[in-house]
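Treating backbone geometry as a discrete language has practical consequences that deserve illustration. In the encoding step, the backbone of a single protein was reduced to a row of integers, each denoting a local shape. The amino acid sequence and the backbone structure tokens for this protein are reproduced below.
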Amino acid sequence: MSDRGRAFGRRAAGELTVQATRALSGAALVGGMLALMWLLESIDYVLGGWLDLYGIRALYLPDLPQIFSAPFLHGNFEHLMANTVPFAVLGFVAALRGPGKFVLMNLIVIVIGGLGVWFTGPPDSETLGASLLVFGYFGYILGRGFFERHFGDTLIAVAAFIVYGGILYGVLPTNTMVSWQGHLFGLIGGLTASYVLRRRRTAETDPVPYGV
């Protein structure tokens, strides 16, 4: 085998190792977040729903810090079960870029989504649930395909839209028991994160211009 062939093989093996490491760390992060949600809902069940008070009540100043707790709490186990599968699937795909970006993306989604709910949500009830994050992950995956124009990201975005595109119906105010504000602003948070955390092109990665 030539030196060029061996170098290519080493690069390919290194890239495979990086991707495998990211996949494992992403699965661990998403699995840990889901485990925390199920633990909190179990505690909430024992306490008779007491943790539900840590959701978001619009324009109520003491609830403002609770934008960080609300996405991890649910009204009941049925609510949590409805969010578990899309959270696991979309969260894992969103985490494949690496744990650092995944954590930053979550913070952006939680802040933008939470503030959106705090400013526009219902003032007479506590808004909570991981659907804010689910819509954020969906927006992040779609945004990566659009902003980065990388074939792999675009392919993933198209696949995500085909499988989960129907959830966009959830941003419409069609059900008074469902927080369309959380869905809408979670989606906006994910799109924003995809732009902020996008990979910048450099002179090494940009194609060389060809003049005529």
